[in-house]
Input
Amino acid sequence: MRVLHVAEKNKVAATVSQLLSGGRARQTNSCATYCKIYEFPLPFNGGQADMVFTSVAGHLLELEFEARVRGWHSCAPRDLYDAQVFKGVPKGENEKMKRNLQQLARTCDWLVLWLDCDREGENIAFEVIQVCTEANPRLTIRRARFSALIHADVTRALANLALPNENEAKAVDARQEIDLRIGASFTRLQTLLLQNKFDWGEHTGEGGRLLLSYGPCQFPTLGLIVQRWWEIQAHIPEHFWYIQVMYRDGPKACEFRWHRTRLYDGAVAAVLHEMCAASPLATVVSVEGARKSKWAPVPLSTLEMQKRGSQYLRIPGERIMRHAEELYQQGFISYPRTETDGFEASYDLRGMIEAQSRAAAPWTTYAQRLLAPDSPLYRWPRSGGHDDKAHPPIHPLKHYGGGDREKEVLFEFIVRHLLACCSQDAEGQETRVVVDVAGEGFTATGLMVTQRNFLDVYRYQSWGGQDALPLFTQGQTFLPGAVDLKQGTTQAPPRLTERDLIAKMEEHGIGTDATVADHIQKQLERGYAGKDEASMQFFPTPLGESLISAYRKMGLANLWLPTLRGVIERNITAVAAGQRTKESVLAEAVEAFRGDFEAAQAQAHVLEQEVSAIVFGGAPPQVNGGGSGGGGGGGPGQAFGPCRECGAQLQLAANAEGPPSILCSSFPMHRLRIDLPRCTQAVAISADFCPHCTHGQVQQLSFRFRQGLLPPGFPPNLTCCAICNQDFKRLLEIRHNQQQAQRQAVAAAEQRELQRVAAVAGPRAGGAAGEGLPRGEAQAAAGREAAAGAAVLQEGGGGAEAEVAIKLVRKAPASSTQRLGVVGWRASRPVPHGSVRATQRREQQRRAGSGASASSSVDSSTAARLLKLVLQRDAHEWALPEDRRRFSKQIKRLTAYQWLARIRMLLQQGVTEETVQCLIEEQPVGPHMPSASEGAAVLEVLREHGCSDADIKRLLRLQNMSILWVPASSLSGVFAALSDMLQLSRPEVLRVCLQVPLLLVRDSSTLRQHWAWMQARYDLSTTAAASLARKMVRSHGACSLLLDSQDLITDKLSGMQREFKLSDAEVSNMFPHLAELLDYRNPQLIMRIRPRWELYQSLLGEFQSADKQRFISDPLLMEIPEPTVRGVFRGVEVLMGSTAAAQSLLRREPKIFHHGVERLVTNLTALRQLYGCSLQQTQQVVLLTPQLAHLKLEAPKFQRRVTALAEWYGHASPAEMLLAPGCGTQLMSSMWKLGARMAFIRRLRLERAEPALNTSHLANTAEGFCRAVGVAEEEYAAFEQRWQASPEAEELCRHEGRPRARVGRAAGAQP
Output
């Protein structure tokens, strides 16, 4: 029997399989990147079974609308309430997970689901069931219910399998569909209505697009924040007065509080104070004592963990849940999503406490006290009264050793909370003293804690008051130390903290324990609310406040108050309990929000007004900013009635030029625009309403027309309804006909101009155009025009004549233009209306605006020659059949004028004529770019980031990419993304881009996601990521990681991992070095890795992790021929006297294979002859410091270093110095460094009077050296700078090169 087990995450699958198999599970990769397969045998259901564990990564399916309504402009937003929805597998990683599940399900008999035991997990379980039963409908399906990743819990879960709960899955489906329909409809309403009517600036996201999202939980949460903000703004400070009585008896003092608390009438308070001040003798009326208790906390639920964690630990709830999830998956705590706050009697709480009593932690001693046999401190925790019947309260399972500071703090809180709730309540004695002063009562209260109990471990809470009250007896009299009249001012309520907000969301039923933190985080991400990190308090942004204010003014409380959402959440809970059907809950919620949506759309102008007033300080919206055509909008439109089609408001909106327009306030959702005729002189909204419009009260408009432009029969003044009045409609129809006639007249004038130029150029054409043309007068005329245009172009005609000539060529049939030997291509779009001179003026204005001079210094003959060349090649390419063209279908054909603008731009930007010609000849469509200005912007971005002319020339001539086609903003985004990701300087980022130019055409967000995936997938530390970035500067192989797909990188590195027998941790550590071996430009290197690696292992014995890293970090070792490798090994074996010594030396210093045996022979000779070492000592020196094997030890600089170090450390001979531990490595340092540090220590010996002061850290970093001798880095840096300029340094370092300048050196200290 074969059993398929599916967990929600790969870590859970790995942990459960290891627990059940006793660590014997065999791991293999699957077709899904993050979902491994774990296999092992285990007794199951009365027999032996093959267990197969795998996982998903959260939800496998995604709820989405049908294809016809997915586009933002594909339908009206209100249509989303009736559109079909379905669950499908999203493209990408989820498709791989589906394929993995179905491949495994085909060979299995059982399916056991190990998803999280909550509603969301139950829903994912049914998604897995759906996918697996498609491949194998005969599966036996069961559900494992567990709360902790420990052996006892998972074993119990496997032994007590149950059926999955379909009702809980349906509850999640209902919530998802409600959120999708409501969220999508209102998001489209808000975004489409507002995105083009204001300059949003910093509110836009990636790509400069605005998204004003709406969520059924998101907005009630925002409403709570805004409501509190309004309460604060509405607060009016009010003065009050109170009397304070102070008494001191030796060291003990106390304050008596007035029974009236405060008075808001200052005169009355002053009179009462005068009475007390006149008779200040106080009489003790009563002294009362009572026992008080402070209850220990109840066991920890999810919401309580978020509330207390945000208050005590100052960690946001979203991060608390993320850390808790990681601790759970690692087996340190129980399941972190639970509503239960009471332990069942079967739980072994003493066992949990005992596990913490063995940990070396601050709470260990308290845990031991709690478990002491004679200690009364322990008690069974008090229950909070909530039980979700699924999981116990959150509690620790084993000790967390640390590694992440926030996780350490959270784990400590969970442990201390468990110990506190298992402890006795704190006990105290409260004393209450009541006194009378001139008939006014005052009370002092003191609390003395007698038994701290749980407070000893629960350091987050304190308790106690005035625990040092003087001793009073009833009837006692005394004179107070002070009787003062104090003044105060009422304070506004504080802003909501995260704890307050979570408590209110819990109270109103907004979200679940698992989603509350996400709803709060969404406010910050969308820019609807902000958070003061110092006080952990929330406040609305102007955008968030304006949206809530608009819905409040519309009277749509359901959209922002928590009432309706609370009802929906209760209904969803009823579905999970089987008390209601999913369909009925869906229908109720959708209908409720459908009515609110229609009301909001009808009052869309209110949303505009509130955003304008609160976000933009009253700036008017651009009423036609949505691209409706026409000039720029003026101020906000004046509403005069409802729209018949959508119910929104009709507005009379002023235009920047010409008469006003009539618009619908819900534009662009409803694209209604009526441009009033040009004869309109003035228009105003009348007080009268149209008697014929039945859809609502529509005010009539009063028009005044210019008589000179008014058609005959129309009155100069007219008051009518712009919606249904027939006279007004006829006037609009006449205006439309006039515009059409005007366009026809322009076309006729242009045709006459074409004929004029043809007549001028006709004699020059020589009549050759008509030869061989097809019959037909129309084609013959077109041929003659083409010949005329060709003649004008070939003779270098310019200005309007050239432009019209180009148009003549465009109009001709392809056959005629091919016979003429000139470009003969069909127009891809109609010729623009207007005269040629007007077109030229517009082009000159555009070029002047973009910084290009209209009178360019570019040689016109050069531009003309290149234009002719590009037109010829363009004609040839476009004449080919579509399937043989070398360019994309998306590329549009350019006019000659557009080509000329691009050529001139390149020449003006300093691109040589030769390079432009190469672009034309080598690229399929020449120097293609969106526009000349965009191409210039691209070149400016490249130069701004350090590209030289040679670099730009190289990028322009690349065959596999067109750098000029990349938008300048996208190019800047790529440079910014690489700078942020790699943390490199601008020149280094440029070197990376020049190594792999294809990076420049990638999407910046894709690059960031790819980099984040790589760091997460291979667990790269900050150091490893920085090392990889540095390698990218000089290694093409490392750069290719940014281009390769995730699957390709995974496959390559999996192969490397198998070849080198690396663990996952070793892959993470060596990732930067492995990256150099992935160079796809050198496939022979990959092919040689296996035999060369096997050769090294056979010669050098077993490799440790450090040995592997040395070899992997030097890819050239894999290219050394086999005879060379064997020859070097035999030579080293002879020189070192044994195979073991040779193996040890070569494993630790593999560079010897590069330098050969000759260098080692020379160094061993130098050690004997120059430094007085015996043969045995030379071998010991090289084994002690393997780096010396490939250095030139006979060089004078090394001799000087050996002599100086031997004298400094007091060695009898150089040989003794070289054999001393650590001294050999100091030879790698320059005398500029060693000498400066020796001189500095000599100075310290004199200053501190410590003749024996010394250090073995001469060759360390400056930080390590300064720490060793106990000085500041700045002091040493100043000394080093001055010493290196001294004659002593010049003499000592005469054989060394000049030292490198160090950044940030201090100056001013004297050596």
